[in-house]
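Weekly modeling sync, notes
Attendees: S.R. (lead), two postdocs, one rotation student

Agenda item 3: backlog of single-chain predictions. S.R. asked that every request posted to the team notebook include the full sequence so nobody has to chase files. The rotation student volunteered to paste the first one in as an example of the format we agreed on. Action items at the bottom.

Example entry:
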Amino acid sequence: MELPTAPAGKGCVPWQGLLLAVLLSTFWNPPTTAQLTIESMPTNVAEGKDVIFLVRNLPGNLAAYGWYKGDKVDHHQQIASYKIGPVEITPGPVYSGRETIYSNGSLLFRNVTQEDTGYYTLQVINTSYQGEVGTGQLRVYQPVAQPSIQASNTTVTEHQDPVVLTCLTNDTGISIQWFFNNQSLQLTERMKLSQDNSTLTIDPIRREDAGDYQCEVSNLVSASKSDLLRLDVKYDPTLGSSGLSAGAIGGIVIGVLAGVALIAALVYFLYIRKTGGYDGLSSCSAFSKANRHAWEREGDFNTVSGPASVPPPS
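Predicted structure, as returned to the notebook:
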């Protein structure tokens, strides 16, 4: 039921005066049953939405109850009082016109603002004028605005240009998440996030990093994604998949081949030393030694039987 506006200039009937006195009193007896509790639904609410305080373990034999802003019973902060049988609802000093009080003690807030954040107290009075108090908390958050992405460059060359993406937002108390091609971004060893996740760095960039990027900001009550940002990655044909130039790759290949040839020669040399050489080399050595001996003998023969020693013909 909506709270009516109290008629001006009219006093309270004797029962109302007694009820008001009880509501203003801070006296209450400890409950003998389950504790009276207040639950906000939802627990966290976005600014401009509605929220209701639900009452749990409401005692029986109720005569009246009253709602107060704050964590205690204070008649200066009373929202409204509710009398049972016959029903009579009386607005309090802080009633704003957005509150609705129900017969089960629940309190509905419409179009809440961040100024409504805080504690709220319910006092219930039974027919013996004994009171019980419960307190609940309302948390109101401002919905986040749509973020945007700023890129160091949107067209880059593979293996040459790093990319820095920044999620821009003015909201505070938020979480930031990144998306790639409409899927949650899976970080690789080339990707790095800042401490608050607002900056994504990719270095070095590769062709598989090309695509659509988004960032999402969220708080306890809302979430919003940025527009898509397209990242184009060009391929430089003078660079290999490793990012080296063709000349550098050629030099590496030549160096590898030279190293292989050197190792092969060393292995062959060690094999020759271990086996004592091959048959062709041994034969060549033996032939050379025989020739040397033959030349020595021939030289001796020429010395003894040279032309001067040959007798003249008869």
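Discussion: group reviewed the output briefly. Helices lie at 14-24, 246-275, 279-304.
Action items: rotation student to repeat for the remaining queue; S.R. to check formatting next week.
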